[in-house]
Amino acid sequence: MKVKADGDEPLPYAAMLAAQDVAQWWKGLSITALHIKLRATCGNRTKTPGPGAQSDLRALARSGMKIGRIEDVTPIPSDSTRRKGDRLGHRL
């Protein structure tokens, strides 16, 4: 938990703070280079990584970590999973 409010957890600022702590911890273990695998939720949800993914990568690069390969490992369904709602769509 890097931020106090629960609504601020998925924001880029919280992701940046977490990435800085992880980079500092890895430097203590003398890890200086890494390969990154990004994963989104998928299923019948979004297939793109969240808003914190880009700020995570930027914070890791700025903290001195060498980034080798960035790979998207989001599972993509081969069958078309139906979204929530009926013919009229998901109504709020």
From TrEMBL:
One of its GO terms (cellular component) is cytosolic small ribosomal subunit. Residues 70-92 are annotated as: Disordered. Pfam families: Ribosomal_S11 (PF00411). The keyword Oxidoreductase does not apply. One of its GO terms (molecular function) is structural constituent of ribosome. GO terms for biological process: translation. The keyword Ribosomal protein applies. It comes from the Eukaryota. Keywords: Ribonucleoprotein, Ribosomal protein. Residues 80-92 have a biased composition (Basic and acidic residues). Component of the small ribosomal subunit. The ribosome is a large ribonucleoprotein complex responsible for the synthesis of proteins in the cell. Part of the small subunit (SSU) processome, first precursor of the small eukaryotic ribosomal subunit. During the assembly of the SSU processome in the nucleolus, many ribosome biogenesis factors, an RNA chaperone and ribosomal proteins associate with the nascent pre-rRNA and work in concert to generate RNA folding, modifications, rearrangements and cleavage as well as targeted degradation of pre-ribosomal RNA by the RNA exosome. Belongs to the universal ribosomal protein uS11 family. Component of the small ribosomal subunit. Part of the small subunit (SSU) processome, composed of more than 70 proteins and the RNA chaperone small nucleolar RNA (snoRNA) U3. PANTHER family: 40S RIBOSOMAL PROTEIN S14/30S RIBOSOMAL PROTEIN S11. This is Small ribosomal subunit protein uS11. It comes from Chelonia mydas.
